[in-house]
Design brief:
By secondary structure, the protein is α/β, with parallel strands linked by helices. The chain is built from nine helices and nine strands. Helices cover about 35% and strands about 15% of the residues. It starts with about 35 loop residues before the first helix and ends with a helix. The model has no long low-confidence stretch (mean pLDDT about 95).
């Protein structure tokens, strides 16, 4: 089917589950974000995951996620459940922006990075049990994990990234065995630090993806729309993903009004095109979404385009998120009628 629809990853968590007023993108664990006691948190997260999946199904989304409901952020859920991390004495790094002077608290690597047990597999099995639709799993990519860690063991950025690549690959293989139809690696820091990404991030990402047993995707973005208001009309790093052994490349185009020329580099991969602006709760019309898709169709054919939000939806009000998804699904229906047989 042309113009299938999906989420990039997250869906808004309910206010009764998490303190959304304090919600940011933590790199270490922040248990005080949860409104439910530890004794009942797992059951509450299950219930909220069911709500997120039902919202996607009711909107008509073709490939659903668990909404990342159990996560405080896209990266810390996986990154803090590995051996080799000192969670009691975290490190720091500079903020993502090129001119940022802010410091961010991050995990500190004090030993070999080892995945002693699967991290997301039980979550995938639960998701698989509550929907009959195809499902997408998301985990942070090795380069982004390396940039969100303070290394005091490996002594080399490249060695640290490759260590993360090994555990990401293990997790990805287990997710496919648990029923994931697509596994997506999130690599937003490739855009934030393109020189490092080119030097040692791409080899690590390739190592994680090589030989995957199912459909893979890589997501690259400018940051959450609610937190990063300004963004350029072109990616600095996107074109370098074209040679990777990956099936799908997920990008933003709505908020940035993206110049889509770089999509011509992707001759084999499917483009997951971000067509919902997540910097605002205003719900765009189906016609606006169609216009955003057709801007990309000058550079990539319809049979290699999937519709999605720009990035994760976690910072949106739940009602706005649901309405935006419905608008995207209506746009997909219009596009299928407009481009039959492509």
């Amino acid at each position: 089917m042309l113009f299938t629809t999906t989420l990039v990853g997250s869906y808004p968590q309910p206010d009764w589950l998490i303190d959304r007023a304090k919600l940011r993108v933590p790199r270490v664990r922040v248990p005080e974000l949860w409104r439910v006691s530890a004794d009942h948190l797992g059951e509450a997260q299950d219930d909220a995951t069911v709500l997120a999946v039902r919202a996607q199904e009711e909107a008509g989304i073709d490939v659903v996620t668990d909404g990342e409901i159990r996560r405080e952020s896209y990266s810390n859920y996986f990154g803090t459940r590995l051996d080799g991390i000192d969670l009691q004495n975290p490190g720091v790094t500079r903020g993502r922006g090129p001119s940022s002077t802010a410091t961010v608290v991050i995990p500190r690597v004090t030993g070999p990075i080892v995945r002693r047990h699967p991290v997301d597999v039980d979550d995938m099995r639960f998701l698989r049990s509550i929907t009959t639709r195809p499902v997408r799993a998301t985990i942070p990519g090795p380069f982004t994990l390396s940039q969100l860690s303070q290394d005091e063991y490996y002594g080399s950025d490249a060695a640290l990234a490759l260590a993360y690549a090994a555990v990401v690959k293990q997790e990805m293989d287990d997710l496919f065995r648990a029923g994931a139809d697509v596994v997506q690696l999130d690599e937003p820091w490739m855009e934030a630090r393109p020189e490092r990404a080119l030097a040692f991030g791409l080899p690590a990402l390739r190592a994680a993806l090589e030989g995957a047993s199912g459909v893979t995707a890589v997501h690259i973005c400018f940051g959450y729309g609610a937190l990063v208001p300004g963004r350029p009309p072109r990616y600095a790093f996107l074109r370098h993903l074209a040679g990777l052994p990956v099936n799908q490349v997920s990008i933003e185009s709505a908020q940035s009004n993206l110049d889509c020329r770089d999509l011509e580099n992707f001759e084999d991969q499917t483009v997951i095109l971000g067509v919902l602006d997540l910097s605002t709760a205003e719900v765009e019309s189906a016609g606006t979404v169609v216009e955003r898709v057709e801007r990309a169709l000058h550079h990539v054919p319809p049979d290699r385009v999937i519709l999605a939000p720009d990035c994760g939806m976690k910072f949106l009000p739940r009602q706005a998120a649901a309405e935006k998804l419905r608008s995207m699904v209506r746009a997909a229906e219009i596009l299928r009628a407009r481009y039959p047989g492509n």
